[in-house]
Amino acid sequence: MRIRITTIAVMAALAVTLVGCSSGDDGGGVSTKPTKAGTPKATKAANEDNSDAEKAAAIPPEPTGVERLALLTALKVVNPVLVVDEDKAVDNARNQCSTINGGGNADQSAKARFSTSDHEVSDAEAKAINEALTAMFCTS
Predict the structure, then answer these.
(1) Cβ distance 93 to 137 under 8 Å?
(2) What is the value of pTM for the model shown?
């Protein structure tokens, strides 16, 4: 278990370092990134409103690039089945931060949130998920 936590911590440090070195063009204006429905997001103002609501709920922004890869890798270290659906895994992680930062029963929440019909998350996995998210993704 210590090896997993150490691995997660190292990956988190690496992700933060690499994200700090990357450059991006935040050209502002309307996002053309397709949503799950395949249509462009409406407007920057709508995205900001959603972001404000998510911030209020202690939900971090959706990770991209190296940060997304680091998050998925950390979850994969806990159990590869957690990232079979990568988009769902990221959504679960983002929403789990709300529970972690809000003081709810994070282990129970992780078990419910990350379990699927094919895999029920164990107590140990739930604890490892929360440790990984706390160390590298969720900010309070």
Answers:
(1) yes
(2) 0.64
